TrEMBL record:
Protein name: HTH domain-containing protein
Domain HTH marR-type: 35-94
Gene3D superfamilies according to UniProt: Winged helix-like DNA-binding domain superfamily/Winged helix DNA-binding domain (1.10.10.10)
UniProtKB keywords: DNA-binding, Transcription, Transcription regulation
Coiled coil location: none
Pfam families per the UniProt record, alphabetical: MarR_2
């Protein structure tokens, strides 16, 4: 049986224990499925398993990533509603903690990633229909038209299901 992931996909985090490293890897695997950068999974994973809020500098040090990557990842995670900023008394730094409410995570992902894709897909499908109608070969035109109409159907179903999903999750 082949390994679940290639060796280069697994990074060492020398300042962290085995449990922390495995939790981080769990979220890295998850964000890869969603097409998001590895650093987003690393940051969220570390914040998720950390009992205390962490600063940007803490993330850079513990994960071995650049300050720019950590800053960009935090910004993306805040936009998704996956992390929140925490005030730490006596400190001027910003600290962060993972949001662990599923409805917030899924809702943020739907709002920021899925819904814009469906909305742009609607206008793209209209353009595709015009292109299909211009196909000179009648058999190909019919085939293209059927496929583009299938895309429109999928987009319509997605636009119908997303609000229901958000409602079920309490968004």
């Amino acid at each position: 049986m082949p390994p679940l992931r290639e060796e280069e996909d697994i990074r060492d985090f020398p300042s962290l224990g085995s449990l922390e490293s495995q939790v981080i890897q769990f979220f890295v695997d998850g964000v890869k499925v969603l097409g998001l950068p590895r650093s987003i999974g690393e940051i969220y994973g570390l914040l998720f398993i950390s009992p205390d809020p962490l600063s940007l500098d803490d993330l850079v040090e513990k994960l071995g990533i650049s300050k720019g990557s950590a800053s960009q990842g935090l910004r993306a995670l805040k936009t998704l509603g996956a992390v929140r900023e925490i005030e730490v008394e006596g400190s001027r730094r910003s600290y962060y903690s993972a949001s662990i409410e599923l409805k917030r995570l899924v809702g943020g992902f739907i709002r920021e990633q899925v819904r814009p894709h469906l909305e742009s897909g609607q206008s793209k499908a209209g353009n595709l229909l015009q292109m299909a109608a211009a196909e000179p070969d009648p058999a190909r035109r019919e085939f293209y038209d059927a496929r583009v109409r299938q895309l429109e159907y999928w987009i319509g179903r997605g636009r119908f299901v997303l609000p229901l999903l958000q409602k079920v999750l309490g968004q």
